[in-house]
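B., you asked whether I could sanity-check this one before it goes into the benchmark set. Here's the sequence:
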Amino acid sequence: MSWKEHYQQHLMSAEEAVKHIQSGNRVVVAHACGEPSYLLDAMVANASAYKDVEIVHMVAMGKGEYCKPEYAANFRHNAFFVGGSTRAAIEEGRGDFTPSFFFEVPRQFSTTMPVDVAMVMVSTPPSSPS
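And here's what the prediction gave me:
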């Protein structure tokens, strides 16, 4: 099977993708402007399907709606660097701060903080000439 066929077989909407998240999962979200806001919106829209999902971010630049008090049973934010949209959750005890140097983060994901789900933005694969 070619990579193009494999790619086509795995395409799905954001709404379908977030249904693969399970309660108790650790979801790592891409850093800063790489944050996949549409996926996060879909995840928040599906919040009733989750309990105790840990959302790990380096710096959240988006809305951070999963940090709102009404989602406390569904999501818990864990920040490597605290941003404006997530600060209140940490201050109010609905989130965590894990101090870390940038260079330590990959090692943490492969040792002490294994990743269940990664949410990242990517571009579409380039088309090859016919």
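One thing to flag: The helical segments are 3-10, 14-17, 37-45, 87-91, 105-110. Otherwise nothing jumped out at me.
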